[in-house]
Write a structure and sequence with these properties.
This protein is of the alpha+beta class and 263 residues long. It contains 11 helices and 10 strands. Strand 2 and strand 3 form a beta hairpin. Helix 3 packs antiparallel against helix 4, helix 5 runs antiparallel to helix 6 and helix 5 packs across helix 10. The two termini are 19 Å apart.
Length: 263
């Protein structure tokens, strides 16, 4: 997980926004790490200048590989540099996220959680040894976190070493906001954190993502995932301290307050 290196507002358009629009089309999305442009059903995910240069190449590789494994993702066509920023060129993913669907119509929350769990359990059945180890990813993030003391890092890494390993595909940020539905098909997006490891570790990250927004929804997700996967609540929440600790130093002060007690 890359630490921010500039004072650029989190969701500000790139400084060369007009030039990117000429090259790639309309600005259709803004995030912390990238801006997304699209024209004629082809999207360009333009990474911000403060992101590691290798990040777009890694994500393009991840998306292409999981697509070959039968997981629903956009097709990648190229990676290119333009005005000192790097972009992934891929199919534009249209539709609404499952999170937005549930927000707009709360009566569909159960339905959307069921779909999240269905797709995540199916993903976890796919095993591959090409990606980084989930334990290594979490351990590295803990080690370089600017928000943890040396004693906390040592304690969390000792906990991590006792957790199980595995070869399942772990998305690393799997929740309804990263699943888009266009009325016919579901597509999973945002593969920058993908790893291989124990499904419980990936499910724990999903639980924490929901927990930061709504504790009741997090508990509903966990109950559904346990029922569908056969894993126990205890097996999944054993990952909670290391999962929270691994992202703590990279969060805003407000988010830090919400997860500090978890580790």
């Amino acid at each position: 997980m890359a630490e921010e290196k500039t004072e650029t507002p989190t969701h500000a358009p790139p400084k060369n926004n007009e030039e990117f629009k000429k090259r790639y089309g309309d600005l259709v999305g803004l995030g912390q790490s990238a801006a997304v442009y699209a024209r004629n059903n082809i999207a360009a995910k333009v990474y911000r200048e403060n992101q590691p240069h290798y990040q777009p190449f890694m994500e393009a590789f991840y998306i292409a590989l999981v697509g070959e494994m039968g997981i629903p993702v956009p097709k990648v066509y190229a990676v290119e540099s333009f005005l000192n920023q790097t972009a992934i060129i891929m199919d534009q993913v249209k539709g609404k996220s499952l999170l937005d669907i549930a927000i707009e119509d709360p009566s569909r929350m159960e339905e959307t959680l069921d779909k999240v769990v269905e797709m995540q359990v199916a993903m976890h059945k796919v095993e591959i040894g090409v990606f980084r180890s989930l334990r290594n990813v979490l351990g590295a993030n803990i080690q370089v976190s600017p928000g943890l003391t040396p004693d906390e890092k040592e304690r969390l890494n000792a906990m991590l070493a006792r957790l199980p390993d595995g070869l399942a595909i772990c998305h690393g940020d799997f929740h309804g906001g990263n699943i888009l539905f266009d009325g016919e098909k579901y597509i999973i997006i945002d593969w920058a954190e993908v790893a291989c490891g124990a499904p419980a570790g990936d499910a724990c990250r999903t639980y924490m993502d929901y927990y930061m927004g709504n504790h009741e929804i997090a508990e509903a997700y966990l109950k559904k995932y346990c029922a569908a996967s056969g894993l126990t609540r205890e097996e999944i929440l054993a990952w909670l301290p290391v999962t929270a600790g691994s992202i703590y130093g990279f969060m805003t002060d407000e988010w830090k307050k919400q997860i500090r007690h978890l580790f």
